[in-house]
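Input C-alpha cells:
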C-alpha cells in the first residue's frame, strides 16, 4: 500500500463516527423490536378484520333495505291497482245480456285479464274465503247471517275480494259470516 493510499484510508476511518466512552450506546435488543413489530402487525390485522366484518354487515344491511324498498314499491303499486280491478269486476258482473258478446266487452275483459296477470306475476293472490273459518287477520266481517247450511264462524259470502302477497295481507277480504 502506498503512502498516499494509507493516508486516504486513515482519513476515511477518522470520518467514521466512533462511539465515545462517555456517550451511552442504546441497547438494541432485536428480539424486543421484532416482538413489538409483530404485536403492532397483529393489532393492525385485527383492526382490519374488524373493519372488514363491519363493512360486510353494512353491505348485507343495505342489500336487505334495498330489497325491502323494492318489495314495498311493488306492494304500493299493487294496492293502487286493486280499486281499478274491483271496478272492472263490478262492470263485468253487470253487463247487460245483449252486450255480453259485443267486441267492446271482449276488449274490456282482455284489459281485466291483463291486470289479473300482473298481480299474479308480482306474487299477489286473491282471498276469496267462502266456506273458510273466519280469520280476523285475513278477513273483515261487516255483517252476519243465521245459516243452517254453514257452520257458525265460517264465511258465507265474500263482499269484496282480499289480496295477499306471500304472508302479507295487502287488503283483507270483506266478508259475511254465519252465526
Amino acid at each position: 500500500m502506498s503512502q498516499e493510499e494509507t493516508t486516504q484510508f486513515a482519513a476515511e476511518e477518522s470520518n467514521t463516527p466512533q462511539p465515545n466512552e462517555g456517550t451511552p450506546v442504546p441497547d438494541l435488543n432485536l428480539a424486543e423490536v421484532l416482538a413489538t413489530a409483530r404485536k403492532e402487525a397483529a393489532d393492525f390485522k385485527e383492526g382490519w378484520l374488524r373493519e372488514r366484518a363491519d363493512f360486510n354487515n353494512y353491505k348485507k344491511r343495505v342489500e336487505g333495505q334495498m330489497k325491502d324498498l323494492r318489495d314495498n314499491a311493488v306492494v304500493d303499486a299493487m294496492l293502487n291497482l286493486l280499486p281499478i280491478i274491483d271496478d272492472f269486476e263490478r262492470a263485468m258482473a253487470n253487463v247487460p245480456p245483449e252486450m255480453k258478446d259485443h267486441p267492446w266487452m271482449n276488449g274490456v275483459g282482455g284489459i281485466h285479464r291483463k291486470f289479473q296477470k300482473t298481480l299474479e306475476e308480482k306474487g299477489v293472490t286473491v282471498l276469496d274465503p267462502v266456506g273458510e273459518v273466519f280469520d280476523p287477520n285475513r278477513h273483515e266481517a261487516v255483517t252476519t247471517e243465521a245459516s243452517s247450511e254453514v257452520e257458525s264462524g265460517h264465511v258465507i259470502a265474500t263482499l269484496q275480494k282480499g289480496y295477499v302477497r306471500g304472508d302479507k295481507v295487502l287488503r283483507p277480504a270483506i266478508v259475511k259470516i254465519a252465526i
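The domain at 124-179 is CATH 2.30.22.10 (Nucleotide Exchange Factor Grpe; Chain A, domain 2). The chain has a mean pLDDT of 87.
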